[in-house]
Amino acid sequence: MDKSLIVFLKNPVEGKVKTRIANTAGNIKALEIYRELLGILNDNLARVNCEVYLYFTETPMDISYWANANYIYRVQKGNDLGARMSAAFEEVFRDGGSQKPLKVLIVGSDCPLLSAEIIDEAFLKLDKSDIVLGPAEDGGYYLLGMKKMNTELFEGVSWSTEKVLNETLDKAAGLGLSVAFTPSLFDIDTEEDWTRWLKLVKR
After folding, report:
1. Tens digit of pLDDT for each residue in 45-78?
2. Can you list the residues of the chain whose pLDDT is less than 70?
3. Which of 23, 40, 186, 197 has its CA 20 to 30 A from that of 175?
C-alpha cells in the first residue's frame, strides 16, 4: 500500500494523560475524557484505507482495544516531540521500501473532529503538494503529511506553543516545499475545549 498513517498515542493511564484537564477537573475525569477521545479515534481509524502505525509513548498495554489486528504497533523514540515525529516518519518511509511514491501522514489523538474523510483528503492533496498540514486553532497542527523525508521540518520548532504552525511553514518555505491544507480544527487540551466539543455534538 502506498499510503501510511502514523498515530501518536499515550496509554490511557490515570495521571499521565490530558494533564491540563487534570489540573482543573482531576486525573479521573481527564482519563475518562482521553478514553472517549480514543474511542472516537478508533472508530475513524476503522474507516481509513491505508496502513496504520500506532506509536505509543510506552509499550502498549492492550492492543486488543484497537479496531484492526493488522495495525502496526511501535513505541516513540526521541527527547522531544519533534525528534519523536521525525524518527517515526523515518521508520515508516524505511518500511515502505520500494513502494514509491509513499505518502505518510501523522496525527495525534486529541482532535475528535479529525475524520476518515479529512485523512483521505490529506492523502489526495499530496498528489499535487510536497507537504500537507492540518492547522489547529491553537497555533499548532493536528496533521502533517509528506512524500519524502524532510528532517528540517522537525528541527528548531517551539513545540507545544502557538508558534508551531508558523515556524513549520517558514521551514517549508525555506526548503522550497509546496504546502496544502486541510480544514482548521481544534484540539481537546482543556475543560473548555471538551465542553465546546460536547456542545458541538449536542451532548
Report:
1. 999 999 999 999 998 877 777 867 689 999 999 9
2. 67, 69, 98-101
3. 186
Helices 27-45 and 116-125, axial angle in degrees (round to 10): 60
Alpha-carbon distance of 103 to 92, in angstroms, equals: 10
Question: What gap in Å lies between CA 135 and CA 38, rounded to an integer?
Answer: 21
Q: Which amino acid is at 91?
A: E
**How does DSSP assign 79-140, residue by residue?**
SSHHHHHHHHHHHHHHHHTT--S-EEEEE-SS-TT--HHHHHHHHHHTTT-SEEEEEBTTSS
Q: b/e map of 88-105 (b: 16 or more CB within 10 Å)?
A: bbebbbeebeeeeebbbb
Name the region of 18 (left: φ>0; alpha: ψ -120 to 50; beta: rest).
left
Which 8-state DSSP code applies to residue 68?
A: -
Please state the domain count of the chain.
Answer: 1
Spatial contact of 145 and 93, defined as CB atoms under 8 Å apart: no
Residue-level pLDDT at 101: 66
The domain in which residue 124 lies consists of 3-200
Q: What is the pLDDT of residue 65?
A: 76
